[in-house]
């Protein structure tokens, strides 16, 4: 029986948001929520696997804009303040729901989660999640790959200005070197969008492989013998790995994926919809 390899590749990206002129800026909450509910849980899981000597290999892209925010001292400080507001709110919710066991249990869950998250960020990581990712890469458990400078849609940019697409890739490569002190090997195309000619720029950036959407291979000429289940080398050199459509639907689809399951938490429904403004306190700012 032929052996196969499963490549787990995660893509981490957020647009750059930083507004020091405002004490609290709504869009910064997107960044804070991603730290709390994605980046820190992922880091804690990977560290636990290392501590338990469980062998694993994971690949992850961290875009330049996200690296810049993770490395920003003001946003780090504001994230701790964000957690403190949430902890204060949940403690008040525990008191308010002391006669409602289900809601009290829910408040207990979030209080524990926010406290653990704060301790991990401040005490274990010294408020530097980028360094935590670097350590995992040094340990050989995580491979971090590069992406475009500002997540620009490269085929569109290339059609309008070849230099714009080239700048996105080369600046993305340079930003990676600044953040991780090594040359990147892999590259995540924003939105997995590919057009012929991009591989030449990737080769110029010394990229050995990149990720594109499934139809980028399936509709290519010549047709790939192994469909999306093996990489294809481009004429310029870099290998193209196609994203698996079925796996993507499991993550994104509201019908066939886990976001559509009744047990999946509704992200856009919380106490902010149910409580009067005065009870929300600082979290409503």
Helix/strand-derived category reads alpha/beta
Tell me the β content. 5-15%
Mean pLDDT across all residues, rounded?
Answer: 92
Helix content: 40-55%
Uncertain parts = none
Distance between the termini: 60 Å
Indicate the radius of gyration in whole angstroms: 21 Å
Coarse shape: globular
In DSSP terms (H or I, runs of 4 or more residues), the helix count works out at: 11
What keyword list fits this structure?
285 residues; alpha/beta; 49% helix
Structure report:
The chain has helices spanning 28-51, 64-70, 73-96, 101-124, 129-138, 154-160, 162-180, 198-204, 214-218, 245-252, 277-280; strands spanning 9-12, 58-62, 142-147, 186-188, 209-212, 232-233, 239-242. The protein has 11 helices and 7 strands. It has a domain at 245-279. The longest helix is centred in the N-terminal third of the chain and has 24 residues, at 28-51. Helix 1 packs across helix 4, helix 6 crosses helix 7 and helix 7 packs parallel to helix 8. Strands 1-2-3-4-5-7-6 form a 7-stranded mixed β-sheet. The mean pLDDT is 92. Strand 6 (232-233) and strand 7 form a beta hairpin. It is globular. The chain is α/β, with parallel strands linked by helices.
Helix and strand layout, with pairings?
Layout: E1 9-12, H1 28-51, E2 58-62, H2 64-70, H3 73-96, H4 101-124, H5 129-138, E3 142-147, H6 154-160, H7 162-180, E4 186-188, H8 198-204, E5 209-212, H9 214-218, E6 232-233, E7 239-242, H10 245-252, H11 277-280
Parallel strand pairs: 1-2, 2-3, 3-4, 4-5, 5-7
Antiparallel strand pairs: 6-7
């Amino acid at each position: 029986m032929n052996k196969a390899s499963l490549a787990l590749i995660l893509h981490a990206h957020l647009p750059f948001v930083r507004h020091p002129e405002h004490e609290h800026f709504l869009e910064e909450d997107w960044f804070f929520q991603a730290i709390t509910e994605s980046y820190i849980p992922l880091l804690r899981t990977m560290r636990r696997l290392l501590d338990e000597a469980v062998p694993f290999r994971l690949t992850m892209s961290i875009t330049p804009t996200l690296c810049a925010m993770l490395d920003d001292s003001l946003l780090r400080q504001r994230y701790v303040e964000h957690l403190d507001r949430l902890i204060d709110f949940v403690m008040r919710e525990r008191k308010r729901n002391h006669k409602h066991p289900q809601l009290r249990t829910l408040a207990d869950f979030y209080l524990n989660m926010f406290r653990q998250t704060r301790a991990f960020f401040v005490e274990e990581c010294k408020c530097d999640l980028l360094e935590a990712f670097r350590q995992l890469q040094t340990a050989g458990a995580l491979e971090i790959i590069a992406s475009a400078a500002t997540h620009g849609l490269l085929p569109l940019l290339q059609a309008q200005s070849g230099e714009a697409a080239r700048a996105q890739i080369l600046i993305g490569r340079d930003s990676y070197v600044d953040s991780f002190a090594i040359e990147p090997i892999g590259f995540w195309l924003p939105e997995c969008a590919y057009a012929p000619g991009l591989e030449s720029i990737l080769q110029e950036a010394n990229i050995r492989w990149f990720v594109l959407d499934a139809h980028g291979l399936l509709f290519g000429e010549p047709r790939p013998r192994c469909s999306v289940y093996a990489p294809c080398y481009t004429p310029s050199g870099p290998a193209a790995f196609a994203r698996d459509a079925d796996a993507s639907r499991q993550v994104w689809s509201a019908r066939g994926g886990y976001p559509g399951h009744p047990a999946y938490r509704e992200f856009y429904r919380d106490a902010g919809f149910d409580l009067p403004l005065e009870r929300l306190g600082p979290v409503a700012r």
